[in-house]
Amino acid sequence: MKQIPNLFTLLNLVFGCVAIKFILQPETAFLSSGGKVVTSGMLTGGFLLLCAAVVDFLDGFVARLFKATSAMGEQLDSLADAVSFGVAPGMILYRLLQAGYSDHSNATEWWYLPAIIFPCAAVWRLAKFNLDKEQRYYFKGLPTPAAGLTAASLPAIAYSGSEAMNQLIFTPAVIYTVIIIISWLMISNLPIISLKFQSYTLKANIDKLLLAIIALLAILIFKWAAVPVVLVAYVIVSLIFKPNKEKI
User: Fold this and answer.
1) Quick check: 212 and 193 in contact, CB under 8 A?
2) Cα angle at 49 between 153 and 233, to 5 degrees?
3) Which has the closest alpha carbon to 119: 157, 153, 79?
4) Per-residue pLDDT tens over the stretch 67-107
5) What keywords is this UniProt entry annotated with (predicted)?
6) Fewer Cβ atoms within 10 Å of its own Cβ: the N or the C terminal residue of the chain?
7) Is 219 exposed, middle or buried (0-12, 13-18, 19+ CB in 10 A)?
8) Residue 208 lies in a domain
């Protein structure tokens, strides 16, 4: 019974590995409104990473349910996150760069390799998290799952959005900017709100409540494009409330 939470955590890794398989496979592409292509594999991979995020959010509850929290579980969680929210989103960014440069006959693999910066930053972020016990109360730097989901949402935004949005997402300069900014946010020491509840008072959770309201409104207004909007709101709300251990 004690291994059930760890097996549940491994579902995160399973979703991440299968997502990579779909993201990288060559197949018939879906045409979006702007003319650039979003493959069905990229869309499927993004959905699988969403499933991985759900598992990642619930694994702590499962561990507490079976009273089986352990150091082993913590390590498995970080290692699974490295694949699902580091490597897999990095491959999505790689594929977006490939598509973005599809009209450039002189494009080489070197032009796509900056996408690897993303998983490197994610692994750095996870290693730092494992060594810093204060991050049980709040985060230093953007959490890897939030970063990974933002990258994973880009194909869905390009596929379902307007022609202008499609062209924007497939612009290499935009993709490079996304890679640099999100990677920097992950490895930075910016104090970021932890979405885990330490208590259930309104005062202790006003930041989470505000973020939830913003997220709901963003989803209703922007649909898939709400993901990067919520990410920006997450960082801004964190900077406003400046979470730290003493405030918990």
Assistant:
1) no
2) 45
3) 79
4) 767 788 788 899 999 999 999 999 999 999 988 887 777 87
5) Membrane, Transferase, Transmembrane, Transmembrane helix
6) N
7) middle
8) no
